[in-house]
Amino acid sequence: MSLALRKTTDIVAATKWILRRGCLNLSTLPEKSEVLEQSGNEVKRRSGRKPVNPILKCRHVYPEFLPDPNPKWRNSLREKLERMDMLKRRNQIEIPEFYVGSILAVTISDPHAQSKTNRFVGICIERKGSGLRAEFTLRNVVDHQGVEIRYDLYDPTIHQIQVLRLEKRLDDKLFYLRDALPEYSTFPFDMDPEILPEGTPVPINPVQVKLKPRPWLERWERQELKGISNIEEHLKEKDRVRRELRKKPWEKYDLMLQYRKTIPIEEQNDIWSEVYNQLHQLQVSQKKISRKRTYSTPKTQLG
Amino acid sequence: MTTSNLKLLCSNFCKLRLDNMVTRSNSYYKPRYRPPHWYMPKDRVMTDDMVTQENKQFIEEVMKDKLKMQTEMKSPLVEGDVQQTVQWSPFIKRTGLIARKIGNYPVWDKSGKKLQTTLLQVVDNHVIKYIPPEEYKPMRNSTQSGIRTQRHGCLLIGSQTIDPSTVTKDYCGIFDSVGMLPKQHLCRFLISPEAALPTGTPLFATHFRVGDYIDIRAKTIDRGFQGVIKRWGFKGMPASHGVTKTHRRPGNIGGGGEKGRVWPGTKMPGHMGNRWRILRGVKILRINTKYNVIWALGVAIPGETGAMCYLYDTVLPLKKLKTAPPFPTHPPMSDLPLEYYDESIHPFDDSTITLDDA
Fold it and tell me: Which candidate among A134, A252, A295, B148 keeps its CA 20 to 30 Å from the CA of B317?
């Protein structure tokens, strides 16, 4: 019985995923990028470079385990203690894999709420910080009013972090949703979680938002954002000239700038080999639990 | 009546002493810097010593042996040849510790509030020497009064073992008498004679308890020569509206006429930071016994990450120790719990905080 249930739910989830992709008119971007990555790896292998350690992939799923690269704040013992504390917290609740652009539901204990807990649904517009200081910001529009809540990832008052839709967007930060039309950051609180079939890569949602007319909170035209469709409508000639003047095309060739922003591979290998086993075990056990769980989530009536 | 008064007068006259005579001379007496008698110059001129490879290996072997001896050396407190008969009382001053500031990170308390903490690592601290109050005569400066009321002994504590070939022979001599390798940092703690410790005693983070308050003395971050805005928080002058060449300058520094000069203490540009400062009354929230790390509340502890700081029992009257701490210090034990948490702190391996209807 349970097997049948699981199968049906799998099928439902897969159809949902396919449907959503169809609705959103998704291009083959994720597949393309995958192909690109694979071919890159092959080229690397051919050129005789060292094979990249597979556990290095953790840096995308658990970015907060890497310390701040500023050498003024580095200390190996503090980083170790911090990682131990993070693993302790991860043993208590499941902190799932999510990215900027994913839609999350966070349940947190709130002393001012009637039921002492508060659930908020929104799109993750920013994820930053390292170690126990890691944080993420959720945005939603509630009653025509934009709401953003910043959560600490390792806050012990968080009861549950649920990923309702796992996907990436075209940009690393989605602050431009604040100046976009409200429908781009409106998500219903009774959204059903969409489950991807196992083994699929995280899809990239290529949706491009429409900005409201000026005034804006930031000069979006200078930030080389891919997720905005109508930015040229709102620009004057002056803005285009200044955008050209402020461009920094040399930065992508600045190797030292990139080096200072990242943790070297040797140190990353040490860090991941220290935490990988525990993280992997946690992942396996949490998968088991999620399989046991029935997928039928009752819809909560709000308001 | 009169006889009694006369007696009183006589007794008072007898008490008069002539040892505090003030002599006047034309030359201004300037206190000479008199280093403590245990002080030895540490820094060595690094030269190429022309040591052969074999000799180098030999030196390394000797160092390894000494280090092994040092680690195997048992604490005199455990061996039991020192019987502590004196009980702790609030008037006794214990020794402090030398620690290194290793960073900040948040912890959460039981009500779910986020607290920022500073991590202080106690790097292998050992008692090097004790100088009893009779022999300890430090240099006095002009601010101290002539007569010392409290007699304190001096306890030398070293921290962080270093290679003996990098420091002078004289400096190594201080540690040789204890049978130890030289230490990077050597600090003097003034203590009550009752709290004296035998030489070679290792000190740990458990010298302090969770929930106690400590004073932390350290050097502030060296910011170099700074202007008046950064150094004293002046507002500066407007960026526009006809202001030229005085955007970050102090402006007027005094009146004219009778007071037509720069008054002492006027806030001006100058060197900022690199001064000894004490932050008093810092609460200890958590202690790790394996790595000897103390989590202290707050991020205002002077110095940058990696700076050394000195920890003392606090002197603030309301935050002073009320119950007996480990006295004279906590002996090394193998069966200690890994972590001590203050009762207000939520340990990370506890379950999620839920708020009940109260």
Answer: B148
The whole-angstrom distance between A282's CA and the closest CA on chain B is 14
Task: Kindly state whether A274 is in contact with chain B, defined as any CB-CB distance less than 8 angstroms.
Answer: no
Q: Is the CB of residue B199 less than 8 Å from the CB of residue B127?
A: yes
User: Domain ranges in chain A?
Assistant: 2-209+263-292
CB under 8 A, 24+ apart: contacts of B234-243:
B234/B267
CA distance to A110, A119, B77, B95, B198, per residue, from B81 (Å): 57, 63, 7, 20, 10
* Residue B216 token pair: 């932390």
Across A53-66, average pLDDT: 89
**Which chain A residues are within 8 Å of B121, Cβ to Cβ?**
77
Q: What is the mean pLDDT of residues B120-134?
A: 93
- By Cβ distance, the residue of A72, A152, A154 closest to B305 is A72
CATH numbers and ranges of domains, chain B = 93-137+151-219+275-324 (2.40.30.10)
Inter-chain contact A116–B355, Cβ cutoff 8 Å?
yes
Whether A168 contacts A104, CB under 8 Å: no
Helices assigned H by DSSP within chain B: 2-15, 53-72, 76-79, 169-176, 228-232
Q: How far is A295 from chain B (nearest CA, A)?
A: 24
- ipTM of predicted assembly, 2 dp: 0.84
Within 10 A of A71 (CB to CB), how many other CB atoms are there? 8
B155 contact partners, CB below 8 Å, separation of at least 6 = B95, B127, B129, B130, B131, B188, B189, B190, B191, B196, B197
**Pick from A215, A200, A207, A264: nearest CA to A67:** A264
Which tens digit of pLDDT belongs to each residue from B168-215? 999 999 998 888 899 999 999 999 999 999 998 999 999 999 999 999
